[in-house]
Amino acid sequence: MLRSDLSSFPEYKVGKDFPDALKLSSNEVAFPPSENIIAAAADAARTTNRYQQPGSPELTNALCNYLNLPADNIFVSAGSTPILQATILACCQTGDEVIVPWRSFEAYPLYVRMAGATPVLTPLTEDYRVDLDAVLAALTDKTKLIILCNPNNPTGTVLTRGEFRAFMDRVPEDVVVLLDEAYWEYNDAPDTPDSVEEYTRYPNLLGVRTFSKAWGLAGMRVGYAVAGREIINALRLLSLPLTVTAMAEMAAVEVLKHHDELLDAVAITKAQRDRVAHELGAEQSYGNFVWLPRGDAAEVEQKILEQGVVIRRYLDEGVRVSITNEEETTQFLEAWQRAGIKPWTA
Fold first, then answer.
1. How many CA atoms lie within 13 A of 80 on its CB side?
2. 259-280 and 246-257 helices cross at what angle (nearest 10)?
3. Are 185 and 319 found together in one domain?
4. What is the model's pLDDT at position 345?
5. Strand boundaries in the chain, DSSP class E
6. pLDDT, tens digit, for every residue of 291-341?
7. Long-range contact list for 106-109, CB < 8 A, 24+ apart?
8. What is the mean pLDDT of residues 203-210?
9. Would you say residue 346 lies in a domain?
10. Mean pLDDT throughout 121-139?
11. Residue 8, SS3?
12. 3-class SS of residue 291
C-alpha cells in the first residue's frame, strides 16, 4: 500500500529537550518576541476566519524594501524547508543526483530521497570546511542540484566569495546550486558570498534564508528564497498555496520594521559564540553555535545532560552547542566544567 522503500528512510529528529534543562540543541534564540511583534500577530489573528492573501504580498513587499530586490525575485514560504523540498522537485526526477557536502543539515539527504533522487555525499576538508573541489569531482550527467550550507550547519565554517565564484564558474549552467543561508545574520566573515548579490551573476543560483534563527520566529515558520525569475516561478508552481499564515506574515513584517533592534541581540550572540570557542578551544564559527569534533560525543552529551544542559550529538563525530545570550552561556560553561569534560585529542 505504501512505498516499498519507506522503512529505510531515517526519521529527521529535532534537537532534544528535557523539562527544566537548558536547551542548547536547536539553534534557537533565548529572547521571546517583542510586544510589537506579538501585537502584530494578534491583530492578524482577528481575520483568521478568512484565507490569507496568496503569495504573502505584505511580507514580499517588506522583503523587497529590506533587500532592495524586485518581487519577481523573491519567494516566501512557511520556513526554508518547503523551499528546499520544492527546489528538489523542480530539479530532479527519479534517478537524478543531488550533491551534498557532508556533514551538513541532516534533512538534506532525506528530502532528496523523498523525491526519488539520489543524494551524493562528498566529504568536508580536514578542517570541516565544504570541499568545493570534491563537489566538482562528483559531478555527473545525472547531477541536477548541489546544496551548499553557508555557514555550514553544524560545523560553522564558511566559503569565501572568491572560491565560491570560482566554483560557480565551473558548475554547468543546467545544474542548480542552492545556497542555504539559514544562519546568514550571524555570518560576520569578512569575505563570504551573499546570494542577494550573487544570483544576478549566476542564473542557476538560489539563495534560501529563514526567520527561524536570528529573527526569533522559529514557531511561526517563515522563510524566503532569492533567485532569478525562472527558479522563483518554479517554486511558486510546485509549492503548496497559503502555507504562511496571516499571523506569521505580519509577525515577519514587524520583524523587518525593527531589524536593527534584533541585530543588536545577534551581536550579543556572536560575542558569546566567540567566548565559548575561545574557552573550549574550538574553531571559529559563523553561526549561532559552536562545533566540537569529538569521538566521545555520546559520553559528552550524557555528561553535560547530567548537569542540566541539552546539546546536540552527531553520532561519534562531535557535538554542536547552540549559543544564545551571556546568562545561558555562563550556565553552559559552568556545567561543562562541573562535568569534567577533558579536551579531545584524536
1. 23
2. 80
3. no
4. 73
5. 22-23, 74-77, 97-102, 118-123, 143-149, 176-180, 205-210, 223-227, 289-293, 309-310, 312-314, 318-322
6. 999 999 999 999 999 999 999 999 999 999 999 999 999 999 999 999 999
7. 106/12, 107/12, 107/81, 108/84, 108/147
8. 99
9. no
10. 98
11. helix
12. strand
Can you tell me the distance from the alpha carbon of 84 to that of 38, in angstroms, rounded to the nearest whole number?
28
pLDDT, one tens digit per residue, over 189-199 is 999 999 999 99
For residue 108, what is its C-alpha cell? 538534506
Q: In CATH, what number is assigned to the domain containing residue 192?
A: 3.40.640.10
Going by pLDDT thresholds of 50, 70 and 90, the confidence category of residue 3 is confident
pTM of the predicted model as reported, rounded to 2 decimal places: 0.94
Other CB atoms closer than 10 Å to residue 293's CB: what's the count? 18
Q: Are 137 and 91 in contact (CB under 8 A)?
A: no
**Overall number of domains in the chain:** 2
Phi-psi region of 291 (alpha: psi -120 to 50; beta: other; left: phi over 0): beta
Torsion of Cα atoms, 228 then 234 then 239 then 244, to 10° = 20
User: What does the DSSP 8-state code read for residue 240?
Assistant: P
> Are 321 and 335 contacting, i.e. CB atoms less than 8 angstroms apart?
no
- Are residues 215 and 290 part of one domain? no
Pair 122, 184 in one domain: yes
Vertex 309, ends 187 and 155: CA angle to 5°? 30
pLDDT at 74 over 80: yes
Reported as a pLDDT band with limits 50, 70 and 90, residue 12 is: low
> What value does the mean pLDDT of the chain take?
95
C-alpha cell read off for 177: 546550486
**Confidence class of residue 271 from pLDDT cuts 50, 70 and 90?**
very high
Residue carrying the nine cell digits 534557537: 28
Range of the domain at 221: 35-257
Judgement on whether residues 121 and 11 belong to the same structural domain of the protein: no
